[in-house]
Amino acid sequence: MGANELKEIFSEYYNHFKNNRLFKTTMRSYFIIAFVVFLAYALVMVLNIYHAAITQLTAAEQKMLTQAETTNDFILRNINSTANSILEEETTALDAMSKPYDPYLSYNTSSLVSKMKLTSNAIDKVYFFNFRDDCIYTAENPVYTSKDFPDKQLLELISGSRIYTINFPHILKYEENNDIKEKRTLVSLYKYSDTSCMAVFVDSDKFNSMVNADFESGAQEMSILNSDGTVISSTDPELFGKSMADDMIVKSIQSSQKKSGYKNHFGRIYCFRQSDTLNSLYICSFRSSSVIVSYIWQIVLIIIFAMLLGIFYLISSIRLSMSIFRPFKELRRDVFDTLGLELNDEKDEVGTKKD
To answer: Is 70 exceeded by the pLDDT of residue 87?
Structure first.
């Protein structure tokens, strides 16, 4: 088919579409129906890809949450086991919490803390409090009294805590090179009596690096919440220690009665897992738009395919319409010639001679 012939076909189609009412109404309806069908096809395919991607990502997120729970469980149980064994077997720990200050006891306490750190590499610091004799061993500095201890909030926490307070977020204030510094920590308190307590600290940054190892992408976020909704671990350090009990998505997850799953909330997909053993809530989230960006090429190809279908339908409809309407010209011309009419413009309204 030459260029001139193709041009003639399109010109003829345009004239039909412009002047022939029946042709215009029929072909416009058919084309709109076809366009809607192709568009619906493209949207269905895009939605299928989106939901398939969401399914894969949520399954992957659940695996990472399970891994985070396993890691968290291992770290905290290891610390708890170490602390309990020290309280039950080491007289040095009990002496530090019950006897007056003694330089030899201070040295033994430092050795005991070093031993505890070797047992569990998650342990960062260990303090022993003897409030009856007003003596606090930190194994790093001279023995403190309550008056000169740099972290007054920790003293208040101990006085108001239960026998066991496990995994509580705390900004520890400690002395180093004659300066007072701060560190995000998770503290576990083991109160032997009202006047005796051992505090075991975990560096929150180290803890985060261990449980959030798979959440290094900026599009993902992961947090671990205690039963009261307090954030003990998060890829966003600004959330550390904050209460999320009033957060809408946390409320929604806790009220769902599901142990694991995901929710869509304001353009973010939240995957969650509730732990029975540690009474914690694990939440990770990612932007739903990141899924579209990840599969943009597949989506673009589907849209292009739908557009090509529309173009092919348009071309085929032109050829089909010509084959339907062209015979009417010959019929009209024969009728006009039989009747002896000379309305040439109407005789040549549609079709071509070669039909």
So the answer is: yes
